[in-house]
Design brief:
The chain is of the alpha+beta class and about 150 residues long. The protein contains seven helices and four strands. The chain has a four-stranded mixed beta sheet, covered by helices on one side.
């Protein structure tokens, strides 16, 4: 992400230090992660210590300090999903993508994470890909769902 784009995001928030989280969310949304160079630029433009920006970026799970794939896959491991087979769904996603939870594949296509709850327990097991919820997913449906994401 170039510095001009980062500056524009900051300007849209009136260059106020109190907008740090919103600025980081926008950068994360566009870039899929927060490179150190982006955090340094935000720190400089908002006139806050780099350690403050790093602390916020590492504290909240919404932020990533490592590159993410084009498609973010979240497998719910909450109680309702767990008892309905979420572990088998997770294992299938891991097998099909070649990555474990917390990893990104070498082609930067998929990043895989487990989550404690997606808030749609009646649909368990649930897989969320790029914000789209796939409920009542079975092991056999998992491959077809992943094929929809190039």
């Amino acid at each position: 992400m170039n510095t001009e784009r980062i500056d524009k995001i900051i300007e849209n928030h009136n260059s106020e230090a109190s907008s740090l989280i919103q600025v980081l969310l926008e950068i994360q949304s566009e870039n899929h992660w927060l490179p150190k160079e982006a955090l340094e630029r935000v720190s400089e433009k908002l006139q806050i210590p780099l350690t403050w920006a790093m602390h916020i970026a590492s504290f909240y799970k919404a932020f990533s300090l490592v590159p993410k794939g084009r498609h973010e896959v979240h497998v719910c491991m909450g109680t309702a999903c767990h008892v309905r087979g979420a572990i088998r769904v997770l294992e299938t996603v891991e097998e099909l993508t070649g990555i474990k939870s917390g990893e990104t594949d070498v082609e930067m296509k998929f990043s895989l994470e487990t989550v404690n709850c997606l808030g749609c327990c009646a649909l368990g097991p649930v897989v969320n890909i790029d914000g789209k919820t796939h409920g009542n997913i079975t092991v056999s449906e998992t491959a077809n769902v992943l094929k929809n994401y190039d």
